[in-house]
Amino acid sequence: MADPATNTTFPAEFDPLPAIGPNDKQNDPTIEHDAVHDRAHAVLNALQQLIGFGDEPAADSVLGMIAALASSAGPAAAHVVPDAGVSYACAASDAGQYRVLTAAGAKTITVQEPLPEDFEIHFDNRGGGAATVSGAGGAVVTPSYGGTLVLPQHGVATLKRLAANDYRLTGALEAAA
Fold first, then answer.
1. For the chain, which residues make up each domain, given as ranges?
2. How far is the C-alpha of 62 from the C-alpha of 53, rounded, in Å?
């Protein structure tokens, strides 16, 4: 490895501490100060490469990874989509939406394969009447414990694809009888 300050190279493997026995003098004249200093400097360089240093640390260093996390925007917020229709079929392009259902009467939401892996969509039933979710084409939608596939007025729920043809509906659902 090379010392970035002096471009001096050090062996890839080294013993950072000299071998000093329990009865040896700490300031034994056979241990050269320069050798100990060079070893300590090599350890410091190795740590700098691992942790990162300077204004622009390497991307694979600890500081580089922290800088990348700090500069990322994080997950995107759900896009709010008003929906005045009485029926809606989930589409791959709708993944991540927050869909506000505003129709005055009963509404139907159909879930049908193929939808992308980790597909997720949110529903907010602000209109009058309930919204009923159903699976089609082999898709099976399971409500959270104690609930049904009916989203009452003012209910909010999330539909999540767990695997092929396996979906979970969670949130403020009508209670099972």
1. 1-74, 80-171
2. 10
The SS3 of residue 20 is: coil
Stretch (H or E) spanning 129: none
What pLDDT, in 10s, does the model give residues 5-61?
A: 565 565 556 555 556 666 665 555 555 666 666 777 777 777 777 777 666 777 777
Distance linking the first and last C-alpha atoms of the chain: 70
The helix-helix angle for 62-71 and 33-51 (nearest 10°) equals 20
CATH architecture of 80-171: Sandwich (2.60)
- What string of H, E and C letters represents the secondary structure of 57-69? CCCCCHHHHHHHH
* The dihedral sign for the CA sequence 110, 112, 115, 117: positive
Q: How buried is residue 31: exposed, middle or buried, by Cβ count under 10 Å (0-12/13-18/19+)?
A: middle
**Token pair in block for residue 3:** 């010392």
For the chain, percent helix, then strand, then coil, each to nearest 5? Answer: 20, 30, 50
> Which residues are 119's β-sheet partners?
none
Burial (0-12, 13-18, 19+ Cβ within 10 Å), 44: middle
